[in-house]
Write a structure and sequence with these properties.
five-stranded parallel β-sheet; single chain; two-stranded antiparallel sheet; alpha/beta
Length: 211
Amino acid sequence: MATVVLGAQWGDEGKANGQTYDFHILPSGLVNPTCLNLVGSGCVVHIPSFFKELEDLQKKDLDTEGRIFLSDRAHVVFDLHLLIDGLQEGELTEAAEKEQLTNGQVAVAKKSSGGAIGTTKKGIGPAYSAKHARSGVRVHQIFNKEELDRRLRVLAKGAQKRYGRALEGYDVDKEIARFDVSQWARPTTVMGPRRTDWQPDVPREAAVLCG
């Protein structure tokens, strides 16, 4: 019999044997040494943060080897999405403040967060928007340099058209190069064993799914 737990998260932290672990991208099922864990196709993932979180867990002597997998159908959160997230939050706040000023609520407008969503500014919303617009990049596509290059440039061009000078500091070539030279974009290195399409690679016994 297979046991599958969907969305098994403790929020931002979990405890095991008196040790505290922080979870943001990774499933908290990693604290159970018998669990296999999958970041599924419904998730969006900032790849550098994925590996940073793994590194932090390993520094706390939590063995994750062979127990964490990333669906190759999950969508990638780029640094571009992080920037857009902050810009969208600012726009909502500004719009709400203008509306309050129009209504004569000057004092409140200056102090209130207005229409701000309260996002973590980690690019999650913009990445999901790109996913649903079919303009995003899936994990398996970062292994194809030409496709990654083309799709990310299209994303960047659309964002720069929308936000103009507010994105002047973003360098699409630098972000593309980051994936070209980093270990997670090479199938033969650390990303390879953790990338899965679920069916052939991950046994279905006792798995924890995120997304």
